[in-house]
Amino acid sequence: MTAQPILPFLPFALPEIGDDEIAEVVDTLKSGWVTTGPKAKRFEQAFAEFLGQKAEDSQLECIAVNSATAGLHLALEAIGIGPGDEVITTTHTFTATAEVVRYLGADVKLVDIDPATLNIDIAAIEAAITPRTKAIMPVHYAGLAVDMLAVLDIARRHGLRVVEDAAHALPTTIEQELIGTLGSDATVFSFYANKTMTTGEGGMLVTRNAELAKRARIMRLHGMSRDAFDRFTAKVPSWYYEIVAPGFKYNLTDIAAALGLHQLKRLPAFQQRREQIATRYHEAFSDLPVILPPDAPEGDVHSWHLYVLRLADDAGISRDEFIEGMFAAGIGCSVHYVPLHHHPYWRDRYGLTPEQFPHSQKAYERMVSLPLYTAMSDADVERVIAAVRSLLA
Ligand SMILES: *Cc1c(COP(=O)(O)O)cnc(C)c1O
After folding, report:
1. DSSP label at residue 105
2. C-alpha 91 to ligand 1 mean position (Å)
3. For a pocket test of ligand 1, which of 94, 137, 335 has the largest count of ligand atoms closer than 8 A to its C-beta?
4. pLDDT digits (tens, 9 = 90+) for 290-319
5. What is the pLDDT of residues 102-119, one digit of tens each?
6. Local structure of residue 32 (DSSP, 8 states)
7. pTM as predicted
8. Beta strands in the chain (DSSP E)
9. Which atom of ligand 1 approaches the CA of 139 most closely?
């Protein structure tokens, strides 16, 4: 018998950083301006253009921040969320979605998911509304759009604000419109290392609400009435600024923006590659005892941030055994997410039980996220497929 070659471990996720990104970062480092400055501004403009904003139309504002968490916090702060208010979101998300509500002293109302899409259950949103409800935070899970027309309709009928957690949803569309361009109050994207594009750490707050944008820009940098770039380039006294609120330190550096400028250019190609891998997984797993992740509706784009398989009840293997088996084959997997109702903080604060979230709970117990990223080779993809099939076929 010939010895099997020992393959290196295939991580669950890896960023794809190219020579253009590296050269741009080096240029920034040599420029003498490493914090928020001209490249952060260019990145905001490029992002607005990506979303389809024409340069002469100033309606859509893009505000670069140092994380999506920061962007979500700024958006909720700007719409006036505070103590006594309730914000509705899904239990099936990362804690960042909900924690920002608590930063502001408001309360989170977690609701279950639709098992078909793994997105927030629209009917459950409406059922969770109380006189204290101020906002809805939909999360476009895995990169599949939430039915935003339904969410915006509920918001309009009940006088609620909408802040989209679009950490997974670049470039996702619904009814051929990019997430970020719909009629919500704000949409926040993440450029964390494992997202569909990265700046290391970073995020973008997008809004058409000029007042919200103005407040977020001020609160992004200590509550200063002008940002550092303007402060050092404007003709009027460069040393003068005014503090109008106790703001935060949420600005994106030019080093990070340098990465973002080039990652954004590559985003369409990144999306195509992710789609290609998802399609290959779909066909390779179609005969297995699994629930495949849902596709975007015909004509729409799924960003494929995550590829989440759910093991069927008769798969003959537990989720934990499956992940151990993949690990033994040298392949990293993950689970998105341990639902919020499961975590001690959220569970205890709101007295949550799994019975209140049957669909999220069931999905959690049977779900596994497979590696899906642009730096994977075709051989990597086939290796994942072979390992999955050896555990389930
Ligand atoms: C990654 C993520 C965030 C947080 O993004 P950061 O840029 O790391 O702050 C928020 N919500 C969801 C659903 C995420 O996946």
Report:
1. T
2. 14
3. 94
4. 999 999 999 999 999 999 999 999 999 999
5. 999 999 999 999 999 999
6. T
7. 0.96
8. 61-65, 86-90, 107-111, 133-137, 161-165, 173-174, 177-178, 186-190, 203-207, 290-291, 307-311, 367-370
9. 13
